[in-house]
Fold this sequence. Notes:
The protein is mainly beta. The protein contains one helix and 13 strands, in the order E-E-E-H-E-E-E-E-E-E-E-E-E-E. Strands 1-2-3 form a three-stranded antiparallel sheet.
Amino acid sequence: xxxxxxxxxxxxxxxxxxxxxxxxxxxxxxxxxxxxxxxxxxxxxxxxxxxxxxxxxxxxxxxxxxxxxxxxxxxxxxxxxxxxxxxxxxxxxxxxxxxxxxxxxxxxxxxx
Length: 112
């Protein structure tokens, strides 16, 4: 029998599979098997539509974004290539043509 991962909330070793979910009988937490493998890799960054982003992806801005210290804005629909994910409040580092190096929040972009 394969050993299931412990509960991410209470670390209980008594987790069990229920259809496509893993369930903890001690705290009642339920999570998907896919989330288990993603959490093992490290932090997960999702775009505004819930798609998982990875280093090197291309994203598109979904709204006009003001640039701090500049009178210009990044227009909605701007394509940003070759992003790099970082573990901070602005979780995307990138270079935007005409602006240079930027840090963006993932909730304002969608995967291209």
